[in-house]
Structures are given as C-alpha cells and as structure tokens.
C-alpha cells in the first residue's frame, strides 16, 4: 500500500480521518499504517512465522528466477525495470542477480514515496550488486505511472510485488490495473504478486499473530492521529480483529472499541462517539484465484501471459501484457 509520510499530506489525512470517523460504519485507510514506526512493524510482520506471503514469494523467485527473467526479455533487448513500492528490495535482488548473470541490458528504476527508503535501497544495491545500474524515482505510484506513460523510451517491465494490490478494494484495484494497461506499449510487461485463496485458518493466523505485532501495526493509524492531528485515542480501549470470508477471498482488519467512549481530535476541533463494540474498518487484504485474476485483467484491458507459483500455490506471480 502506498505510504503517506510528507507533512503536506496532513491536510488530506485530516480530511480522510474526519470522513472515515463520521461515516457509518466507521473506516480509516490502511495507507495510514505506514510511517517510520509502521514501516518497522511491517518489517517485523514479514519475518513472523504466521505471515507466509513474503517467504512464499521469495521461494517462487528462488525456484523460478531463470524462467521469470527469461520471460521479461532477452539479453539483446534493453529494458527499464520499474518497481512500484520497492521497499528494501530483498526479493527483487534475487531477480537482479539473475538478470546480471544472464547478461541482460537493463536499468533498475525503483519507485517509492519515501526518499529515505530509496536512499537505503540504493546504498545496499551499490554494496551488494555494484554492476546494476540504479536510477530511483521518488514519488507516488500515480505520478510515476504518468511520467512513464509520457516518456517514449525502451521496453518497460513493471514489478508490483507482495500482493500490495490486495490492499485496494475491487473497484480501485481494477482502476489501478487500467492505469497500468494505459501506459504499457505492445512489448511491455507487468509482473504482479497476488496472494491466493487457501485454508481460511492459515489466512486468519497470518493477520492475527499471537505476538501482537499485527495489532500494533493496525493501531498505528490511531497513534498517527494522536501524534499528527492532536487526537486522544487510548489504544488500550481498542482491540485488533481480523475476519476472512472464504466466499469472496476478502480478509478485513478492524479496530473494535471495547467501551463506549468519546475521542477528540484537536486539528478537526471535533469529537467522535464510539458505542461499546463499535468497529473501525481499517484494511482489506484480498486473496485471489485464477478466475478472479483473469477476470480483473480482462476488465482492465490486460492479458495474463504467464504465471509462477510455489509448490502449494500459496502465492502466485502473474505476468501481464496489453
Ligand atoms: C502490504 N500488504 C500487502 C500487507 C497485507 O498482507 O495485506 C499489509 C499487512 N497487513 C497486515 N499484515 C500485513
């Protein structure tokens, strides 16, 4: 999910909090989980035994790196490798190493809203893979997609890993894919990680770990409201709750008010009432199957040309073209 960390986004944050807490049922966007603390909590989540997604995608890359990179291009066709929301690049480095080994001509263009994340990634790449040419782009997905669409340049391969698409509701996910389709030329490719439907218990466990890290991650949106908008949320008055609907494949996170309470947010000059056991919906993490993915692709003007999976089809990476 795209992060929002700049001060200028505070006004947007304030407006969205006002809308979300005035709505019935209440909601807040999971994009506000991510600040310095939220980023660290997400790093911890990715290392949790219950959170299988990151390891599954890493395994796919380890096991299929030569087929994956061969499906991107051939050594004689130069291309730009873009990555939306690059993060720390742990999984991508496996592909970068393989591309170097196979003598592909490419430039790696990680995109992230956080200048700090990009600087750290560039430094680690310079140390670990000094032969990779790296040219980061700092900005939102939206701005960078627009820029990519305007530049007529060499072939593009765009990575969007980690099932980040699952944090968008269906309508926004299809709109996002339409934007991707719009900027792809004939030979360009889009490579996306999508978590798969599986035993509901496995999914629930991944989002409600007993160590409480996911709960702290979910509650970080309240901490941010307290710190950035002058809120007085008492975090102990809320519990993290996860649900999974195996029919739709939708996992949803909530914060549930344990008591009837009133919370004040200074910047908004407003108070919000909570009944006992009232919910704030904070995140959706959609799980997919092939039928859904092919339908979404068709609706967005994309075509699935290849897919890679781990042994149990826990997670899949799909390759799309227009
Ligand atoms: C970033 N995103 C794909 C994660 C997910 O699985 O939905 C965020 C997350 N939320 C709770 N745990 C991890």
Automatic annotation (TrEMBL):
<dbReference type="InterPro" id="IPR051128">
    <property type="entry name" value="EgtD_Methyltrsf_superfamily"/>
</dbReference>
<dbReference type="InterPro" id="IPR035094">
    <property type="entry name" value="EgtD"/>
</dbReference>
<feature type="domain" description="Histidine-specific methyltransferase SAM-dependent">
    <location>
        <begin position="13"/>
        <end position="320"/>
    </location>
</feature>
<dbReference type="InterPro" id="IPR029063">
    <property type="entry name" value="SAM-dependent_MTases_sf"/>
</dbReference>
<dbReference type="InterPro" id="IPR017804">
    <property type="entry name" value="MeTrfase_EgtD-like"/>
</dbReference>
<dbReference type="Pfam" id="PF10017">
    <property type="entry name" value="Methyltransf_33"/>
</dbReference>
<dbReference type="GO" id="GO:0032259">
    <property type="term" value="P:methylation"/>
</dbReference>
<protein>
    <submittedName>
        <fullName>L-histidine N(Alpha)-methyltransferase</fullName>
    </submittedName>
</protein>
<keyword id="KW-0808">Transferase</keyword>
<keyword id="KW-0489">Methyltransferase</keyword>
<dbReference type="GO" id="GO:0008168">
    <property type="term" value="F:methyltransferase activity"/>
</dbReference>
<dbReference type="InterPro" id="IPR019257">
    <property type="entry name" value="MeTrfase_dom"/>
</dbReference>
